[in-house]
Known about the structure:
50% of the residues lie in helices and 21% in strands. It has four helices and three strands.
Amino acid sequence: MEYINANRIRHLLVQEMEKLMSEVDVYVAPSFGGDNLLLTNLTGHPCVVLPNGFDEKGSPVSITFVAGSSTRVAARRRQGVPGRDGVPSRTSAALSLAIAGS
Length: 102
């Protein structure tokens, strides 16, 4: 029962995030500022994290770019990645990453 309720809340979060992302192309935030990692892990929105220099203590810092899920579908279609609605299956995604890495 707890899993079902948690999944319902997650679904509501995904819907709210989609509403927000329908108004912007990408939002940019510090990687460890707030709950960005938690949010993208729960909603499945694609994000890219890039190094962004160093803080005053000399520790590396990074910046996160988060896009809407429709951006992910459009990007996959442009790349010709197979899968339902342009979203690759786990197998085709793994193959794409393996090919890109070689």
